[in-house]
Amino acid sequence: MKWNLWRNGKQAKQARFDIFGNMYYLGTDNCVYSNSDDKKLVCGVADFEVTVDKKIYAIATPGSTAYNDGEF
Known about the structure:
The chain has strands at residues 3-4, 11-17, 23-27, 31-34, 39-43, 45-50, 56-60.
């Protein structure tokens, strides 16, 4: 099941929250985004978790390697 995020109208596969209530979501393009600034954090992701210190632990999609475009 996919649902629209109300803030920007994008589709999301999953949503995760850190301890402070910040939302991170996995888009249909298999990239993890931060909802606070809609910034693409890491791509090639099948599943992920966010830690208290905002580190993302991700499982790469089959046949790809998770990567990011820079620091966040």
